[in-house]
Amino acid sequence: xxxxxxxxFVAVVMLxxxxxxxxxxxxxxxxxxxxxxxxxxxxxxxxxxxKESTVPMDSSTLFLAVPYISFxxxxxxxxxxxxxxPRPVIxxxxxxFLGGALLFSLAGTLKVLASMDSHSNFTxxxxxxxxxxxxxxxxxxxxxxxxxxxxxGTNNPYVTMIYVGQSVAHYIxxxxxxxxxxxxxxxxxxxxxxxxxxxxxAELGMIDDGLLxxxxxxxxxxxxxxxxxxxxxxxxxxLNVFALxxxxxxxxxxxxxxxxxxxxxxxxxxxxxxxxxxxxxxxxLFKVQDFLMVxxxxxxxxxxxxxxxxGGRP
Length: 314
Known about the structure:
The chain is mainly alpha-helical. Helix content is 69%, strand content 0%.
């Protein structure tokens, strides 16, 4: 189990920026632009790591510590949930689905607190935006995992993956389909893939990126890297547990093969997301709450259907 755990950890930490680069490159090609290299996220992180960090005068130790703490939280999640390897890894017995959701929420809350600690008006505006949306996104995440636990009779993500993947009837049942749609919509929001958010300085479109406005140098590099890992973790849970819970192998050699299989799954997710992002009109900022509300309602409907049907897994 140690070898498989190390392979999963290394694959998540080292390859997560690559998927962001592939997404941005493909999106640029669809839009008729040349676009950046697929390795641009690595170049950006390396450049930021070599720069000096500036710290707001009125900030506290919290501002300095949160980038490292949030990165550490995402690294712990790498050793908990099925993001590459389809069997329990080193820390899986300590955390279930709900525990993983709380870890994601903890990292997000700390980032909001650190941004407010900078005492910047712009980051305060972004913190207010994130808080006004996160009550729906976090409620959706928790409801999705509750719904899954009712469908499968367990809150263990590995059992859920096996249950959903072992039968087509389990995969296409309506409660699973609704949860699948709900979690994908949540992933779009949490990773900035909604056609409303801008990673540049377009103030009216910035949501999560506004929290990092006062960070620079190494601290910003760590936060950017953590964002790539968060995207990979949530996307891989969506792929392995909900959307494509097949084609995974066990054992040390199987874990190595799973890295390549995950690359194929991610390409499928990236192509679909790029198509969706480039064909939809940009949402107005106040419409993001409507989007998240739909996601939340879908998760509630799935939960009610499961309860009305007497549960899923006997």
